[in-house]
Every structure is written in C-alpha cells, then in structure tokens.
Amino acid sequence: MTRTRTFTNWNSVPLTFGMETACIILDKSDTCLKNEIDAGRLKAIKCGREWVFEKTNVMKYLGAEPSQNECSNEFNGSF
C-alpha cells in the first residue's frame, strides 16, 4: 500500500474514510488497525468487504477532543 496523502489538521480529514486513509492518519498497518478494531479499542463499521471509519472515533482513539460541530455530524451506524 502506498501512502501518499497527508493531513495537516483535522479540518482536512473527511467525516468518513476507508482503511487506507485510516492507516495514513494513524501511521499503522491495516493488520494493526484490524487488531485494534477486534479488541474494541477503535470503532469502525464493516460495510461489505470495506471498513469505514468516522473522524470523531479516530480522534477519540488518539485522545483528541472533537469540536461540538464535528460531534453533531457523527452517525450512529444505522441507515
């Protein structure tokens, strides 16, 4: 997997993103992130064969506090 995109602040990160972007943000391999998901330390949703991450959940995983505006955009996993 090639890691070419970087993020300089949370405002440039999309609200939801896939495994590749999560690996870039967290600087971890997909295997490591799957282990974190399985252990319950990182929240993600499996949509078919793809993983979907929410920005606010990744921020919480890193110990960053999402702003009130970012929290209001969080979805609850149901459609």
Any chance you could write out the topology, listing elements then pairs?
Layout: E1 16-17, H1 19-26, H2 30-38, E2 45-47, E3 50-54, H3 55-62, H4 68-72
Antiparallel strand pairs: 1-3, 2-3
Kindly, what is the distance between the CA atoms of the first and last residues, rounded to a whole number of angstroms?
30 Å
Strand order of the largest sheet: 1-3-2
Structural class designation? alpha+beta
Major sheet: 3 strands, antiparallel
Number of helices: 4
Q: What quaternary form is this?
A: single chain
- Secondary structure: helix percent: 25-40%
Sheet-strand content, in percent, reads: 5-15%
**Contiguous uncertain segments of 5+ residues:** none
Topology as H/E string? Answer: EHHEEHH
The shape is globular
Mean pLDDT: 84
Q: Would you report the number of β strands?
A: 3
If you compute it from the alpha carbons, what radius of gyration comes out, rounded to the nearest whole angstrom? Answer: 12 Å
Give a short overview.
By secondary structure, the chain is an alpha+beta fold.
Q: Any overview of this molecule?
A:
The protein is of the alpha+beta class. The protein is 38% helix and 13% strand. It has helices spanning 19-26, 30-38, 55-62, 68-72, and strands at 16-17, 45-47, 50-54. Strands 1-3-2 form a three-stranded antiparallel β-sheet. β2 (45-47) and β3 form a beta hairpin. The longest helix is centred in the middle third of the chain and has 9 residues, at 30-38. The chain is globular and about 25 Å long.
